[in-house]
Amino acid sequence: MTKRRYFEKPIYWLMRAVTYFIVIVIGYILYDIVRGGIGTISWEFLTTMPRRSGAEGGILPVIIGTFYLVIGTVATALPIGMAAAIYLTEYATQNRLTRTIRLAISTLAGIPSIVFGLFGLGLFVIFFGFKASILSGSLTLACMILPIIIVSSEEALKAVPQSFREASLALGATKWLTIRKNVLPYAIPGMLTGSILGVGRAAGETAPILLTVAAFYLPKLPASIFDQVMALPYHLYILATQLPDVDAVRPMQYGTALVLIVLVLGLNLAAIFLRIYFRRKYRW
Length: 284
Description:
Elements: H1 2-37, H2 43-47, E1 50-51, E2 56-57, H3 60-91, H4 96-109, H5 113-127, H6 134-159, H7 162-170, H8 175-203, H9 207-212, H10 232-241, H11 246-281
Antiparallel strand pairs: 1-2
Helix pairs in contact: 1-11, 3-6, 3-8, 4-6, 5-6, 6-8, 7-8, 8-11, 10-11
């Protein structure tokens, strides 16, 4: 026992030091972005059109484009992902086929985003003829986060005790009524949390939208789902790599980065608040 404690203490302090180091690094990055971007954020910056290929002016089309992509992604991925998770957990026979499907879903969750971008380019942009558009970008992002939604929703459904299902079925309820009344209310916090975190990841991705929807410079708002848009991640990439006068556009870089971070953090906070709300509403 003494020997075990002798080895445990250094490992404990090592893990603690690594944790503190990660927190310090992330804190410094956030501090640097806030310090560099807070002076750029203004009503004019958020609500006016860009000028000089985005090097000056505001980022209204960038924000609106990102908003459209997030809405399209949620509308596509959320119902499909949750429905797939409900089927795999509650209806599908647990055999080799379902295990293979789960393995494939878990594998897809770890594929780099650029691969999904190439997939969206080949399928939605070229094969279906949607071209570079909001529709192509939203469908590509939906495919990217679909495995995350399915996996997180499955875990939330499995966390609901089996006795809840058995008691409902024993009272004569149908399978769907049991799921709707005795399973989903208790699983929905975890399902929504995982789903919103997946959407937050999609909102910050550059590679998929680079190939399917993002435009270098569009000083106008989109008129339909078949239009290209500017988006926050790609716009930040353009500001950082494609414009010659880096020092002149540095405030724009920091301001855009700060808006993107606020958006992603806002989605994560929404997931936390939804989880807290539903857990208080349905206690078990």
